[in-house]
Sequence to fold (297 residues):
Amino acid sequence: MSGLKLFRTNTTNSGVTEVMPHLAEVEADVQGLVEAHMETLLGVRFLVSEYSTGPVHGGRIDSLGLDENGSPVIVEYKRGVDAGVINQGLFYLSWLMDHRAEFEHLVRDRLGATSASQVLWTAPRLVCIAGDFTRYDVHAVREHRRSIDLVRYRLFGDDLLGLETVASVSGGTPVARRARRQAAGPVAVGGQSASLVELAYAVDEVLLGLGGVNRVQRKQYRAYQRLRNFACLCAPQRSKLLVYLKVDPKDVDLVPGFTRDVTGLGHHGTGDLEVQLRTPRDVERAQDLFRASYAAA
Fold:
């Protein structure tokens, strides 16, 4: 965001006025704004603010939430630059992993029993939102085996908020290329043809190749996310793969047999645009849609 300039155009005299960026007056202003619109901004359902970790642990988590894939999310805020935000967040993430039943009880109270039963403990996340981060922060998150997002914010004028992902790292240990390819296979193994298996590999490589993408595995689908999901690859059907994208179907020239508006229709994963893939050529045709969804996330 430090390199971004924002201008307000004046249609009357064709002039432009720069909207100057600034930080919040206090950290609580950032926290309040994000918590009030957390699902829109981060793709995370807000659970609770300033959650106490008890007298023994002696901490207070800024925000707790649940993302689109059912992963627990801790959000920590800093008004400006603070070298301690990552370590503080990891401290709370460790507490969370030791108090799973307590978190699930909170989810049950706020979102219902179904959401509580679907919490995904393989991919808990830490999101740090601050005025800025140092290169040491970016390096540090790459050394941890946790899912961590560093997000820089800026306020513009009185009514504009900018969020920029500075670094995003998925949890887990590094794996060899062959192991990555095996992991990229079909979401559910059954009687899929070899061509569909290869098609799933191709889709996986294209989506990960967009850069800064985390892959989250659920039973019925695999989500590809930046801060939010931008694509969900479902288990192969008999003759095709289904990918759901965060693209407004109204902005797309729908092609029968290739793209479909599924707004309001139940399906696995997230997104209102369904893309049906049968051949490698379909994957090529879909790449502009993949990039549009990636950009929106």
Observations:
- DSSP finds ten helices and 15 strands in the chain.
- The two ends are 16 Å apart (CA to CA).
